[in-house]
Write a structure and sequence with these properties.
The chain has a two-stranded antiparallel ribbon. Strands 3-4 form a two-stranded antiparallel sheet. Helix content is 33%, strand content 11%. By secondary structure, the protein is an alpha+beta fold. The two termini are 27 Å apart.
């Protein structure tokens, strides 16, 4: 609550506490929309933004457990659209992609994604850049390249990424609010809108839903707590 008071762009939040693998507290505070009177509850769905990357990595790791993916294998074998400078996609591994060690500069081509360009085409054009280090030797945060994980999953399981995540990760642990799309967020009975300076409501952009493994997840605090419990 103190954080809400100190941050002029925050109008609501939800809190969950997991102790020794058990959910011991769930509550919502504030509003979903400034001045609306619609209270945030434990059922209010929020965008997970880049926390979605942990879901993608877990999904790929699950496929690796099943022997369908080699985390140490070249990423070129699993993500056809990912092209790196100097054909480094044949040296970079799937693990490198999931740990931001592809050798690209930070947030490569995020600006072009935000301009509305297609992420699959952007992944191919990453080859036009210069490496800042050999793959696997330095860390540099990525979004366009990281979403190669959703392409990998769809290629292996032969179904849309969201459906695969629901069936293999969310449903088994009882996550009922989980979705990986803007439609999934906006169809929720209660969902938190984005706000900016002065607590002014902003348009909910679909930009990062186009890279679902990177930033396309939505969940309420109940399911976030269930996810935390499962991670233990």
């Amino acid at each position: 609550l103190r954080q809400m008071a100190e941050r002029p762009n925050m109008v609501g939040l939800a809190v969950g506490i997991v102790e020794n693998g058990r959910i011991t507290f769930l509550s919502g505070y504030g509003e979903t929309i400034e001045g609306s009177g619609e209270r945030v509850t434990a059922d209010t769905v929020f965008r997970w933004a880049s926390v979605s990357k942990g879901v993608a990595a877990t999904m790929v790791a699950k496929l690796a457990e099943q022997g369908k993916v080699n985390l140490n294998g070249p990423v070129a074998s699993y993500v056809p659209t990912l092209k790196l400078p100097a054909a480094a996609e044949y040296r970079a591994t799937v693990g490198d992609m999931l740990s931001h060690r592809l050798g690209l500069y930070r947030n490569a081509y995020d600006n072009k994604l935000e301009e509305g360009q297609d992420p699959h085409m952007l992944r191919q054009s990453l080859s036009e850049l210069n490496l800042i280090c050999p793959p696997g030797t330095c860390w540099s945060y990525q979004n366009i390249a990281y979403d190669g994980a959703s392409e990998l999953v769809e290629t292996i399981v032969q179904q849309p990424y969201e459906r695969a995540v629901r069936q293999m990760l969310f449903n088994p642990i009882g996550m009922t609010s989980g979705s990986v799309s803007q439609q999934g967020l906006m169809s929720s009975s209660s969902w938190a809108r984005p706000h900016g300076a002065g607590r002014k409501q902003l348009e909910d952009s679909d930009t990062y839903y186009k890279v679902p493994a990177d930033g396309g997840g939505n969940r309420n605090i109940k399911d976030k707590a269930r996810w935390m419990s499962a991670e233990r």
